[in-house]
């Protein structure tokens, strides 16, 4: 589980303190050390980053996927490090924290964000969901390849599920994808991937 340091800090204090080589986030002023990703988690994350990058190149879209950039909700002292963060390069000039802090705060900079579920799944299904929605990020993927999330999110019995949350009139509409379901993404309408292909990226036996 995530381990939180008790002292409340500001975003400015967090980015000054944040050490290189380890993954931390800021949740409402609380510094949170993120779980060390297991191999399967890294394979799924890498596969998605590769496929989305390839689609960007194919469609000649002005997007990039950074390695360590942060997403900061403007309304609170939080800062998230998504597993896959798609950035709209032309809007980065409007981001006041980009050049010095590699941080984005505007929905116009973030067409899509992906969280690959780990042991801290409640953060992705609750807090990040609410903050990404409040920020107006158009598309949010929750990739629960190990079926760790609560049954109210992925059903009973639990099974690997991808939730794609699409912003409509300020609120997320959720579509669930299982097994051989073809992923439907407003950002990448021609993406030719099934949920199972994504899940299999983390299965060395396949």
Give your account of this protein's structure.
By secondary structure, the chain is of the alpha+beta class. The chain has one domain: tt1808, chain A (Alpha-Beta Complex). About 30% of the residues lie in helices and about 25% in strands. It has 6 helices and 11 strands. It has helices at about 10-15, 40-60, 100, 120-135, 150-155, 195-200; strands at about 5-10, 25, 30-35, 65, 70, 85-90, 105, 110-115, 140-145, 160-170, 170-175. The chain has a 6-stranded mixed beta sheet, with helices on both faces. The protein has a 3-stranded antiparallel beta sheet with strand order 1-3-2, with no helix packed on it. It has a two-stranded parallel ribbon with strand order 5-7. β8, α4 and β9 form a beta-alpha-beta unit. The longest helix has 21 residues, at about 40-60.
Record keyword descriptors for this entry.
single chain, 206 residues, alpha+beta, tt1808, chain A, 11 strands, 25% strand, globular
**Over all CA atoms, what is the radius of gyration?**
16 Å
The helical percent reads 25-40%
- Give the overall shape, derived from the CA principal axes: globular
> H/E series, N to C?
EHEEHEEEHEEHEHEEH
- Count of strand segments: 11
CATH architectural type: Alpha-Beta Complex
Low-confidence stretches: none
Total count of domains: 1
Mean pLDDT: 92
Cα distance spanning the termini: 29 Å
CATH fold title: tt1808, chain A
CATH superfamily: tt1808, chain A
Enumerate the strands of the largest sheet in spatial order, edge to edge or round the barrel. 4-6-8-9-10-11
Structural class: alpha+beta
- Classified by CATH, the class is Alpha Beta
- Sheet-strand content, in percent, reads 15-25%
User: How many DSSP helices?
Assistant: 6
């Amino acid at each position: 589980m995530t381990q939180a340091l008790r002292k409340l800090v500001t975003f400015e204090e967090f980015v000054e303190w944040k050490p290189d080589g380890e993954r931390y986030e800021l949740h409402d002023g609380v510094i949170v050390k993120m779980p060390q990703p297991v191999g399967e988690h890294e394979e799924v994350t890498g596969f998605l980053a590769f496929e989305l990058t390839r689609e960007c190149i194919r469609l000649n879209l002005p997007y990039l996927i950074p390695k360590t950039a942060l997403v900061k909700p403007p309304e609170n002292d939080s800062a998230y490090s998504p597993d896959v963060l798609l950035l709209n390069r032309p809007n980065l000039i409007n981001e006041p924290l980009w050049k010095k802090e590699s941080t984005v705060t505007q929905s116009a900079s973030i067409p899509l964000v992906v969280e690959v579920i780990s042991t801290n799944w409640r953060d992705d299904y609750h807090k990040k969901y609410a903050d990404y929605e409040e920020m107006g990020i158009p598309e949010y993927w929750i990739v629960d390849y190990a079926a760790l999330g609560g049954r109210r999110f992925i059903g009973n019995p639990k099974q690997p599920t991808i939730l794609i949350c699409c912003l409509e009139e300020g609120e997320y509409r959720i579509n669930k994808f299982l097994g051989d379901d073809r992923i439907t993404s407003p950002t990448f309408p021609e993406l030719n991937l099934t949920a199972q292909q994504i899940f299999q990226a983390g299965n060395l036996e396949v």
